[in-house]
Design goal:
It holds the Pfam family OB_NTP_bind. The protein is built from 25 helices and 20 strands. The chain is of the alpha/beta class. The chain is globular, with a radius of gyration of 27 Å. It binds one DNA strand of 9 nucleotides through helix 6 and strand 13.
DNA sequence: TCAAATGGC
């Protein structure tokens, strides 16, 4: 794929436009034909026709994501206004693949080929191939439980086993069953009720076809889950990667640096004259520094990129020839008994290890240096523990309840979460008012919370704020709480300047009022500048740069704000503002979050009231130094210590009436 | 007196 793209850049600019187009079309056609999957098109279509469920194992570079949907379209699976839906774990993937496929089909994006993600829907009534995030497809089921417009649904990258993928796999199993056995009864109803025609059209077609695509080592897990479904293997296209192991186990990161220098001295003699340009990449990195990672190394330099697991699946850095794999990954786990998340470095799985070394063979033959012995590799787990077994389940269970699945313990998960994790989530949802005493969805609160794309605690805060007079402020607050790292660490020479700026924003009350202030001030700046629609992003970036705010995070928060504002307006909420009456807003905050409070102890540490854990204020909080007597917080996570994040002090006067109720 | 994984609705 890369070589054709580069070839096009070298075209003579004087070539007539029409001819350049036809050359481009020819290149695309040649590229498509060269993909490993192209030779098995006929066979694949036959198998889809024969089997209602198909597992496709395709290695990197097989072309399965872009080609199979086109094969299905050409084979007539989109006749009669039906769609082929392709779910992806991330929106970047959904968008880039949809763009590529639209180009290959020579159609305008948003017509025959489109994508749909949380903030952007490019599909129209004539869309046949729809790429989307798996989380969004789940939400579609809330509106259309039979997913009636789809003739085929492809779940891509299923091996990643995100929570959304796992729930989707279970849901689709049920939808497929409902659509095959429910046909008859519903057709009778169709004659008597035109209003539900949308759902019924879906029932008159042949059963829903399901295709699960995975890059994992074996397809057994998926095949068994779908009652022995047929699995096919499609060849990949990768350059060879030499794997090198260490003779002795490596125990610290200093060894990583040594390895890099050894590579430079011994193994890369031809390149040894180049100096090393060290760069780091992680998700919170401000965009200008991100550009440096993607830019080619200056002459005389070799880039050494230190990456988090963002480089495993989310981002591909061009030009990689050597990968050093320390064999560990920072992984989040959730302890339901303490209501606390832990982040620590754990051994990778074999699947992750292969993913990492694979990056060395994208553009040519490469090498991968594994900082452990081969026998240690053999001992690794085949695949990473599915996320659903390591996370807070409250959101998942709320979604399932809203989809009509009441028996969570008996739910057909591909990997069942622990009983205690389910109990904890049910209890939390009950406490938040989303579930009734017998664990049914509370109407309307539970329904409303399920429809909001937020943590249930934040959805609850919006419902409370609607009963007060500060919904506008709470919308801003939960949008800001939903994104990571609004502030970032500036380079050394700017540190003093940044501190002044930070002090300007800091509220003595805590992080919530600080975030509200940041959002409001940036908004005032935008309004004062009166930018054209197209310039808003640029104006915002300028403001962020001057104020040491992470512009990507703030933009993300603005997008969430817009989205959830639309959601609550649809629910009939009236978005009113308390203006400068911060007391009302603070009361509402306390009412929303007082359940997660902590109290200062004699030694300056804090005791979390719910779990009894001894915790510390995270250094990024504006209250890190002032240490108020009592605080509430939104996050509790163990890293080097047990830290609480995003906190606001609780006024001692309020604790006298913590029975405070917004309905009073 | 100090943190910092990553996706998604």
């Amino acid at each position: 794929m890369t070589s054709t793209a580069q070839g096009e850049l070298k075209q003579n600019p004087k070539t007539p436009v029409a001819s350049r187009f036809s050359m481009r079309r020819q290149k695309i056609a040649e590229h498509r034909k060269s993909l490993p999957i192209a030779s098995v098109e006929k066979r694949l279509i036959e198998e889809v026709q024969k089997n209602d469920i198909l597992i496709i194992v395709g290695e990197t570079g097989s072309g399965k994501t872009t080609q199979l949907p086109q094969f299905l379209f050409n084979a007539g699976f989109c006749r009669g206004g039906k769609m082929v839906g392709i779910s992806q774990p991330s929106c970047i993937a959904a968008v880039t693949v949809a763009k590529r496929v639209a180009e290959e089909c020579d159609v305008q994006l948003g017509q025959r080929v489109g994508y749909s993600i949380m903030f952007d829907d490019t599909t129209c009534s004539s869309t046949s191939l729809k790429y989307m995030t798996d989380a969004l497809l789940l939400r579609e089921a809330l509106v259309d439980p039979l997913l009636s417009r789809y003739s085929v649904i492809i779940v891509d990258e299923a091996h990643e086993r995100t929570v959304h993928t796992d729930v989707l796999l279970a849901l689709l199993k049920k939808v497929q069953l409902d659509r095959s056995i429910g046909n008859k009864g519903l057709e009778v109803e169709a004659k008597t009720n035109d209003e539900i025609g949308g759902v019924l059209r879906g029932c008159q077609i042949s059963p829903l076809k399901l295709i699960i695509m995975s890059a994992s080592l074996d397809a057994r897990v998926f095949s068994e889950y779908y009652g022995g479904a047929k699995a096919l293997h499609v060849q990949g296209r990768q350059f060879t990667v030499d794997i090198l192991y260490t003779v002795h186990p490596v125990t610290d990161y200093a060894a990583l640096v040594i390895t890099i220098f050894q590579m430079r001295l011994n193994l890369l003699k031809d390149l040894s004259k180049r100096k090393i340009l060290p760069l780091a990449i992680f998700s919170a990195l401000p965009s200008d520094q991100l550009m440096r990672v993607f830019a080619p190394a200056p002459i005389g330099f070799r880039k050494v990129v230190l990456a988090t697991n963002i480089a495993e699946t989310s981002i591909t850095i061009p030009g990689i020839r050597y990968v050093v794999d320390p064999g560990r990954v920072k992984a989040r786990t959730y302890d339901p008994s303490k209501g606390m998340e832990t982040l620590d470095a754990v051994p990778t799985s074999k699947a992750q290890v292969l993913q990492r070394s694979g990056h060395a063979g994208r553009e040519g033959p490469g090498k991968c240096f594994r900082l452990y012995r081969q026998r240690e590799f053999e001992k690794l787990e085949d695949s990473t523990k599915p996320e659903i077994k390591r996370c807070n389940l409250s959101n998942v269970i709320l979604q399932l309840k809203a989809l009509g699945y009441d028996d969570i313990f008996g739910f057909d998960f591909i990997d069942k979460p622990s009983r205690s994790a389910i109990v904890k989530a049910l209890a939390e949802l009950h406490l938040l008012g989303a579930l009734t005493d017998d664990c049914k969805l509370e109407k309307p609160a539970g329904d409303q919370m399920a429809r909001l794309p937020l943590d249930p605690v934040y959805s609850r805060a919006l419902i409370l704020a609607n009963q007060s007079n500060c919904l506008e402020e709470m919308l801003i607050t939960v949008a800001m709480l939903s994104v990571e790292s609004i502030f970032y660490d500036p380079p050394r020479e700017k540190r003093e300047e940044a501190r002044t700026s930070r002090n300007h924003f800091a509220s003595v009350e805590g992080d919530h009022l600080t975030y509200l202030g940041v959002y409001r001030e940036s908004n005032e700046f935008l309004e004062a500048e009166n930018s054209e629609e197209a310039e808003v992003d640029q104006t915002l970036r300028k403001w962020c740069k001057d104020n040491f705010v992470n512009s990507r995070s703030l933009k993300h928060a603005r997008d969430i704000y817009r989205k959830i504002r639309g959601n609550v307006e649809q629910m009939g909420f009236n978005v009113s503002s308390c203006g400068n009456d911060m007391l009302e807003y603070r009361r509402c905050l306390a009412a929303s979050f007082f359940l997660i409070a902590a109290q200062r102890q004699m030694d300056g540490t804090y005791r979390a009231l719910e779990s009894g854990e001894i915790v510390h204020i995270h250094p990024t909080s504006v209250l890190f130094r002032s240490k108020p007597e009592c605080v509430f917080f939104n996050e509790l996570m163990q890293t080097s210590k047990k830290y609480i994040k995003n906190l606001t002090r609780i006024d001692p006067v309020w604790s006298a009436h913590h029975h405070y109720n917004t309905e009073e």
